């Protein structure tokens, strides 16, 4: 059954796998506060050959999971044809597994593609993963390799020991300190620092060794003849190819065409004499050459990826997805904007329906800019017939603005009452009658309507 599909465009070369752990240290070690040792590419003072944790296919050992392994339980499948240029189809791989090994159907969490020629099967327990690993001969008949990547079952750490202790001696003497982590030691390699005296380059041993443990968890400390030693995470160095100016491999492993870091043409940088062009990084588009890693934002991101790989025991692909790309803050950190660089013409003009606020950066803060969304006002659909009346009411004087209160307000004086207004007299009479009626109901005096009316007329001096 064929499990591949598609192909690469003409001239497209196969990419190098980045799931492997690098085997060479050429950098200085710096012990961090989080039990990690980072190797900086800039210093270049260490050299040691380490066993690769992702060997070639011909040398790949058959690894299986133990019942004590905590997981994850991953099994990788990839095509082993030398000239394979298609894409490994995960659906077809799943069909092949279920057809030939149906007993693992309910033990598979998921099957996912993690590259052009690689598929990962995630199992629920180690027993189910081992069932698939024991069928390697069956898969070889259809040109498929089934294996566990070595980085899943092995961890690398750094311990500080005396230089007079040999690698062979330490390999036999390093033992677990307690039951918090059970392991076996696979290899021990001494680190060296580079010494250049008058052109005479030598590599001198230092008091640090890299230990490869067969365990899914890095031990916090180990015992050598019952003497305790702390174990720090070994973080791979970031390597840059000076042929194609990409991270992840060296020039001798590069299969791409050369790229010049100066003019960006297809030739090696050492043969270019064009120094008049503007400096621009091929990787992060920064204002520097690609080989100036101390100025490159992507170099810092690659270091973060390597640290994530060491701390979580994950592949480059998974760590690359976890570490975010270059952010705006990192760009402004290397290219800060000062208040002197901001002109008034660069600032947006304020209007009645737009709110704008700009934070000018200072020496201790990054530049941020916030522009609020303009308020949208609905245009009137048709004239309002009551609008003119509303304006007249609103425009009238409602509150006295002169001393003396409302009685001295000219607007108030206009409204003088006419005492001869019959309507006014009627209202007042009815009010008085109502009041006196209440008095009558209380047996104060017996008053009729005509009497009360005459009394009111006499009081107001109104003729009949």
From TrEMBL:
Record domain CCHC-type: where: 241-256
Highest taxon, organism lineage: Eukaryota
Polar residues biased stretches: 26-35, 331-371
Annotated signal sequence range: none
MF annotations from Gene Ontology: nucleic acid binding; zinc ion binding
Keyword flag Translocase: no
Region (Disordered): 1-35, 331-388
Key word Metal-binding present: yes
Keywords annotated in UniProt: Metal-binding, Zinc, Zinc-finger
Protein name as it appears in the record: CCHC-type domain-containing protein
